[in-house]
Write a structure and sequence with these properties.
single chain; alpha/beta; Pyruvate-ferredoxin Oxidoreductase, domain 3; seven-stranded mixed β-sheet
């Protein structure tokens, strides 16, 4: 089983991203469980969404405490919550940031890092820092767990309408193409 924890802030679409990613993975024949978590349920508050995927039926419906992948759609949420809490060895981090890898701090258990300046792309496309579909593209590029075609289909089947649909399809593509993937030798083992 592969477990993903999505971190963001209220209003950025972290829960919606989890739902779209789950739909795309189902299209690819995976079994998926998506578990949203809203916290304070207000705009700007830290939120998380959880996904499990496997090749067989999944019965576990709890939050994810030891993720294989962290998808962080906000560059500041790590100041409010420990996004790396419980991360497994050889984990993947997909982060929206304009900063280079050398300036980022993350535990030595992270083996792959995908970086995308999702906020700049979102401001250009939407005029607001809503990065969810951009970072789904970054997730696809970094992990290879889902194809862009399945994500496109999931977005087209979601609640986006008219111009919003075209913008979000463009955002997905831009996120995929703008992501820089770094493979890192793990520096430590989990305690």
């Amino acid at each position: 089983m592969y477990e993903i924890r999505i971190h963001g802030r209220g209003g950025q679409g972290a829960v919606m991203a989890g739902g779209m990613l789950a739909s795309a993975l189902v299209l690819e024949g995976k079994y998926v469980v998506a578990v949203p978590s809203f916290g304070f349920e207000r705009r700007g508050a830290p939120v998380a969404s959880y996904l499990r995927l496997d090749d067989r039926e999944i019965r576990q419906m709890t939050n994810i405490y030891h993720p294989d992948c962290i998808l962080c759609i906000d560059p500041t949420v790590a100041r409010a919550v420990d996004v790396f809490d419980g991360v497994r060895d050889n984990a993947v981090l997909v982060q929206t940031t304009a900063r280079p890898l050398e300036e980022l701090k993350f535990p030595g258990r992270i083996a792959t890092v995908g970086l995308c300046d999702g906020v700049a792309i979102a401001l250009e496309l939407f005029g607001r820092p809503i990065t969810n579909t951009i970072m789904l593209g970054a997730f696809a590029r970094t992990t290879g767990l889902v194809t862009l075609e399945s994500l496109r289909t999931a977005i087209m089947e979601s609640e986006f309408r008219d111009a919003g649909l075209e913008q979000n399809l463009a955002a997905l593509e831009r996120g995929f193409n703008a992501t820089r993937v770094h493979r890192i030798e793990c520096r430590e083992a989990a305690a």
